User: What shape does this take?
Amino acid sequence: MTGTLALVCCGGVLFASGTALLMARPLTRILLGIVLIGNGVNILVLATSGAAGRAALLYPESDPGRMADPLPQAFILTAIVITLAVTAFLVTMAYRSWQHSGNDDVPDDIEDIRVVRRATYAEERERLRAAYRKRRHEYRALARGEEEREAREHSAYQRLGTARDRYREMRRRARADARVFRARQARAEETAEEIEGEDDPWQTILGADR
Amino acid sequence: MSGGGEPSHAAAVMSALVPLPVILPLCAAGLKLAIGARLERLQRFISAGVLAAVLVVSLVLLVAADRHGPQVMFAGGWAPPVGIVLVADRLSALMLVISSAVTLCVLVYSVGQGMADNDEVTPLSVFHPSYLVLVAGVSDTFLAGDLFNLYVGFELMLTASYVLMTIGGTLSRIRAGATYAVVSLLSSMLFLAAVAMVYAATGTVTMARLPARLDALPDGVGMLIQIALLGVFAIKAAVFPMAAWLPDSYPTAPAPVTAVFAGLLTKVGVYAILRTQTLLFPGHRIGDVLMVLALLSLLVGILGAVAQTDLKRLLSFTLISHMGYMVFGIGLATRGGISGAVFYVAHHITVQTTLFLVAGLVERRSGTTDLQSLGGLARLSPLLGVMFFIPAMNLAGIPPLSGFLGKLGLLRAGIDDGGALAYLLVAGGTATSLLTLYALAKAWNLAFWRAPTPEMCAAGTVLEDTEADSDDDEEATSGQGTRTTGPRAVLDRWEPAPVRRRGAATFGGQEITTSATLPLSMTVATVALVLFGLAFTVLAGPLFSLTDRAAGELIARTPYVEAVTR
Assistant: This one.
């Protein structure tokens, strides 16, 4: 078999550009990437048949060494038909997706993200709960000390009222802390996403129409 | 074929039977497209009849292949260097028998589901032809005698599966289908590139001619081809690093489709690994790589399953995990290992399909498969409990059942091998078995015990596909082309109180109707599969000796090669 560098290089370039397009979100771009890779593969298959030669069926009397190998061509024809069918199917999928939601992005797996978030929130909840328990404990100790002091100064009714109020105040603060933490986390994730979008060259190249 | 003499009349008949599992479903699919949406009963009759015929043909082929060696058919009478060859040896025939039995049961189930939903005519008239093309593709991959035909079989199967995955065209299915289609397409491209490599290096793609030529290649080139093919088939088989697409895409499809995908399509990948690694690349060259992949697949998969809260996703992760057992057997590359892997494939196809069908019935009974909102199903529907319990215990590997026997065979083969890695795999396999039991017991506790939860829908409730609906609303309010409907927006909406993943259970994907009584034909099909799974336990002795003979045939390589090049 004689190698043909031009075909191999062409296939390589098609593969590379197709791979770059595959990284995009919109299904249409992914589809273009798949078409490029498909053609790249076909050209690589063609490269396996060696140098160009005469058509075997048209020139049966010629030297077998000068004939083109027909088998890879048969492979390619089959592959082209298959790629055509699948491309048509993906185009309809992209169109259907656009009909549904106004874009054709291929999204992340929501259920996966949910499981991950559940884990991070569970950790955070545990931490806050522990902090809250500690503070409640401290406050109760403090309140007990105060109670003894206040017992000398105030009536029993007032004492009960202040203790409960302070306890509630403490609880409110702990809950507010948790809320703030969650909001901050969400904001941090959002900005991280934005920054990523701005700095990532691929984002500017591939996400131009987003 | 039997001993090399002049082909007798019986051998010629056998040879004519070989292509039938591919041709019959394809012809039936064409016929159905011609009939269109009319004559629904005739449609059902044709589908069931054709699949039953395929089952009978496969059984005959299995007996013939077991008694007289591999059965071969040269398409158009052309010998291998030019023509296409179909080969049915013990492994192919066994896979054909199991796949046709399972597809027949799933067809009955899906007919029941279509009737129970009083489904729209259009999706059903798409479903039947696509399903038959899928069966033809699966049969073609099992029978293919050359790599390019294997590629065509895969494509036939995958193209049909794209249609089945997105049937009804709801938003959630299009989303899941896009991931699935892109990953499958990419692996197909890589497969074609690998075929090109094989052809460039050896000048042939006929599997029977490849062993001699591949053995003559320099070690590096052979290794490159081996790894390229392994990578491609590992994507199809959802072995760990290439498995992320599976739990994302499978659970959104209609129940029978998910069942047949989970049961069969991944095993087609395993079959291709088994065929190429034994016939084309014998020995232990990348056995260690396979074993490491198997270990990771086992552990990562099952830990993923433990974390899930949705029954279908939990089952998808156990599927990835249990792929590890089969890859382990192939990686050992001993007769015992391969025999165990083949047995496990047969057992796992049946059990995994059954469990997904039961998940479909659970959805039908209670309107959801979310474990948090299920409860008390064992009391509400004891039959459903039994139908879930038996295959679940079978999957986990509780002693008398075939799951235990399959795992035992593999673990024993691992201990016989005696390497450090093999012992690590044995430990990993045992841990996975226990964790599978844990995950399934958790699912059982939440869904079948407890008191019925208030979220569970009363019988007769019609559920809308919530995700698609809310997105449609948003589109109506904020106009087309907005960026609010991306994953981010969906996530935010889900964040405060996780919405259950529900609906999308019918072929049309629009709504499902829950019912207190299970539809008859769906139940019959599921019970048949449960019994089929139990048959592996009862007939484990003969089946194990059959898989042992199949493994011997695979390792010897000569029966296959001689049958084709004779």
